[in-house]
Amino acid sequence: MACLGVFVGYFPVTTVSVSLPVIQRALDASTADLSWVSDAFVLPVAALILTAGVFGDVHGRKKVFQAGLGFCVLGSAVALSAQSVAQVWAGQALLGMGAAALLPMTLALISHAVPDPRERGKYIGLWTTSMMGSLTVGPLVAGVIVEHAAWRWIYLLPIPLSLVTMVIAAFVLTESRSPVQRALDWPGQLTAASAIVALVYGFIEGGAGSFGDVQVIVALAVAVCSGVAFVLLERRSPSPMLDLTLFRSAAFTGSALVVMISFLALIGFFFLLSLYLGMVQQLSTLDAGLRLLVITVPPMVLGAVVGRLTRFLSPRALITGGLVITAVALFTLTNIGTDTSFGSLAWRLALVGLGLGLAFPCMTATAVSSVPHHQAGMAAAGNNAFRQVGGALGPAILGALLTGRAVGTLPDHLAAAGLPASTSSRVLDAVDAGGLGAVAGLPLGRATGPALRALSQSFLDGLQLCLLVSAVVVLFGAAVAAWLLRPTSGSRSAAPVTAGGTRPVETGRRPDTAAAAGPK
């Protein structure tokens, strides 16, 4: 049920990502509007995931699991009937609320059923495989639907999928709660949500306009103040939403930072790649989805294999090595052009998938196994929260970089194409008013072809900058993993490995700590 739940929760991510060019044309959306399509889903996940974890601990994980599926049904129904981009945002937000409830519950179910942190790693590997399976199936489903029907029908499948899962869960799942008394932390929830939403809003609107705009400055100031308030409140709360003592574990801190950095690059990369395949290479949604398989299939396959690799390699080595491979792959992608062949693109995308496949299964297992058992649920929720914050910031930051660079170089490309000043002015005015996608709808006559080629070249300038930044960010994540996930001075050099194939992360605690804190 945990694997099925995470499959439902992550299904909208790539299903919608690969359909962004079609949504842009159908609803006349700007690049900033498209950023909000992605972030309308990710923001509720990032803002509510910790609270959902507390709700499950207090009121019952089965109830929250079922509620999450209900929100998925409601969000899909709203987006399925969308007539405007704002209605798509509303549907995506409801889907994000459903995912926020499902993700911590799925890991909490695993932690409840498998108290042994060594054995638990095997099941978290299967959980990761299911998550990547959802990301793999999504583009194919979206591609087939968009080829034969309106884009809105991409939201149909989650409805029966969620309803069937609800029925199965009603009979299969037993209710469970945290063995430790907890209470809802509303001040922490409000300050955390304010910080995350204001931060992402500031980056998206700053990229669409200017970071000197008053509303952008106010948003970023609110994000900083709310973040500071959250830390102060959580330190004094008798029942904190996120116990800050978890960060005393270098393994938990390292895995949280690494997963945030990785998802910032990954979700941002999916966002950029879907626009490149649709706007620059003019591929259909199905063809774009098939190309995304090259990225998502390797992590899905490796999810079941990485556990065995830990017999020979530590989680630190796998995470660091995987991120280095991903960074190298992103560096090689910085020279792609409008006519780059699938063969030339495929091996680089496969390298991205290989690196993520080595790193991802170990990240969550490291976070959960680095704390006492009674804090495993909170650690899982915290790790997921950092994952979603990175996922929300990815399209926002990289979308802002893409737009800024593309708009800055577009005049030079229009001039190089030999377009008259009056035509160039019309193109630039359209971009200022409606974003890069607005150029496709301009009636330019014979100048349409040169104008679109100039637009593609400016888009590639922005894309290459974003890929370079993504590679540097992932390389920084690898350095963080190598530093913070190193064994402590008092740890053993080779921890025993169970039949599940996972080696526990050494954090300097006594070996019996997790066992002593087992379920009551």
From TrEMBL:
Record keywords, A-Z: Antibiotic resistance, Membrane, Transmembrane, Transmembrane helix, Transport
Region feature (Disordered): 490-520
Transmembrane spans: 35-55, 67-86, 92-111, 123-146, 152-174, 186-204, 216-233, 254-276, 288-306, 318-337, 349-368, 465-485
SUPFAM superfamilies, per database record: MFS general substrate transporter
Any one of the GO BP annotations: response to antibiotic
Subcellular location: Cell membrane
Membrane topology per record: Multi-pass membrane protein
Xref: InterPro entries: MFS, MFS_dom, MFS_trans_sf
GO CC field: plasma membrane
Gene3D superfamilies in UniProt: MFS general substrate transporter like domains, Multidrug resistance protein D
Boundaries of every Major facilitator superfamily (MFS) profile domain copy: 1-489
Pfam families: MFS_1 (PF07690)
Molecular function terms, GO-annotated: transmembrane transporter activity
Protein name: Major facilitator superfamily (MFS) profile domain-containing protein
Taxonomic path: Bacteria, Bacillati, Actinomycetota, Actinomycetes, Kitasatosporales
